[in-house]
Specification:
By secondary structure, this protein is of the alpha/beta class. It contains 16 helices and 13 strands.
């Protein structure tokens, strides 16, 4: 993505974050810190969640957007603001503008989830649908700013935005003084940069580690070569951190202050979302789950090093996407099993198959028959089963039982 940023790169310091904290008093919630017994047992260290998914608008984005807009001069406020976003930034800008009495226009891609579009409108923004991808939406928003004089509110490329996000770091230190490691998802880098500024100034002994999705991990190669580089066609379910190029300002801070950036797989992200929902009773979007995915993927990295805080950065997820991710997460955790096998096309054959499954306590979610595949014999039918299981060992038990009963599992 080609964002316009100031040159040279401006600095963000602790005083900026402290000023943002005062500005946000009574506006942004001091979100709760929740303990995770499951992850604590898995890692051998106390693990806590910083629940920015419970922030107003459902993510941390309100913090930076409000600080940025509140800092505009009167003539800039009169011109209004404009932003481009598929979700969380859109809602943060919309609410911040409404609270400050500033007119806002938000450009969103045509395929943006309807709940996010509706929420952005309800927070007071005029929404304009443009483009199929965020790059096209961004270009339209920038053109609108150039044409009308509206102030473009960058999602992570401004020092005020980064200072606002940094208030999350101050709250973590106040709520969990025993913290030794903070894990935070990284897209453009505004949240991670802000947290690092605050934490390293106040507690340089605390590690701050970024987490990116493997399919959209622009920071590791960028840090290796010393300047932002782009990832072509980033692909991940974690749309909140699906950014193809690091922001210039966050990159400067992250390169100087972060203790590392780790990557996680799509399977790990879906398993993390499922864990948050089932164990912590928290609805968290895939980007917000990335720190949890890091803990699940390599728990041994966090044992014995003191308390760990995972920042759950957002909870805005389309219900249809949630349904797909939960199924993916159950499959990744060995709790959802899809099978295809052939049985005789005669009465009672399906009942016999289901009877075998009942003996191993596999819950059948869905059954479908295929009779028209040319590969099938004249007296055969293909059965596709979707089963709810109890984990990898149970999946293996199901397979053994079917094999023992004479069935050949095709997939």
């Amino acid at each position: 993505m080609n964002y316009r940023v100031p040159v040279p790169v401006p600095q963000v310091i602790l005083d900026d974050v402290r000023g943002a904290q005062k500005m946000l008093s009574g506006v942004a919630r001091v979100t709760p810190m929740e303990n995770s017994r499951h992850l604590s047992a898995l890692t051998g260290s106390p693990v806590h969640f910083k629940c920015e998914n419970l922030q107003r608008t459902g993510s941390f984005k309100l913090r930076g957007a409000y600080v940025r807009i509140a800092g505009l001069r009167p003539e800039q406020r009169a011109a209004g603001v404009v932003a481009a976003s598929a979700g969380n930034h859109a809602q943060g800008v919309a609410l911040a503008s409404s609270l400050l009495g500033v007119r806002s226009t938000v450009f969103m891609p045509v395929g943006a989830p309807l709940p996010k579009v509706a929420a952005t409108q309800e927070y007071g923004a005029e929404v304009r649908m443009h483009g199929q991808v965020v790059d096209e939406t961004l270009a339209a928003a920038q053109e609108y700013a150039d044409r009308t004089g509206a102030v473009f509110i960058h999602p992570f490329g401004h020092r005020d935005v980064i200072a606002g996000q940094g208030t999350v770091g101050v709250e973590i230190l106040e709520q969990c003084p025993e913290v030794r490691t903070i894990l935070v998802g990284v897209g453009g880098g505004g949240l991670a940069a802000g947290i690092a500024v605050a934490v390293k100034a106040l507690r340089p002994d605390v590690k701050v580690i970024g987490v990116q999705a493997e399919g959209a991990a622009a920071y590791p190669p960028s840090l290796r070569v010393g300047h932002p580089v782009s990832v072509d066609d980033p692909v991940t379910m974690a749309d909140g951190i699906k950014v193809g190029r690091p922001g210039d300002i966050p990159f400067h801070i992250i390169g100087e202050l972060l203790d590392g950036v780790r990557t996680v797989s799509e399977d790990a992200l879906s398993s993390a979302l499922l864990l948050c929902l089932e164990r912590a009773k928290l609805v968290v979007e895939p980007a917000g789950c990335s720190p949890v995915a890091a803990l699940l993927s390599r728990p041994e990295l966090y044992g014995g090093g003191g308390a760990v805080v995972a920042v759950l950065s957002g909870g805005n997820i389309d219900p249809l996407l949630l349904q797909r991710i939960l199924r993916h997460g159950m499959a990744a955790a060995g709790r959802y099993l899809s099978l295809r096998l052939r049985v005789a096309d005669r009465p009672g054959a399906l009942a016999g198959l289901l009877a075998v499954l009942s003996t191993v306590d596999a819950n059948v979610l869905d059954v479908s028959h295929v009779r028209t595949d040319p590969r099938l014999g004249l007296t055969e039918v293909e059965v596709e089963l979707h089963l709810e299981t109890k984990g990898p060992e149970h999946c293996a038990e199901v397979a053994r039982s079917l094999h023992g009963a004479g069935y050949t599992v095709m997939s």
